[in-house]
Write the structure tokens for this entry.
Amino acid sequence: MSHSDLLARGRRTPKKFGATKMSSNDSSSKSFLYLTTIGRVSGEPREIEIWFVELNQNFYVLAEHFHNAQWVKNIARNPRVTVRVGTRIFETTARILDKEADRETWTAVQTLSTEKYGWGEGLPVELTGS
């Protein structure tokens, strides 16, 4: 079963945590994106609402609990994800950054997140924009 088929079968509506509706389709005006992973145990789609930043035409999200975050564990098992930001929806492969190998991007993403939200200490995960 494809990632899209799983999504169609099990789309869940996430809880809202202070999200504001924006009329613009420009992702820079958005506070949140919606990331759907496939559960590593259940095989079911799991959608979260999460802060993000953009760098070099990619989206980045930060995991507060690093490799202990359930969604990061799902990505480690199956990196194919679906991203929804505004009205834009796309499938991509998520990549968990390595602190040493990706040091420059790691630091830039954390700095951008701190500037945007006042917090940026998590594990960066890259979502290649398409």
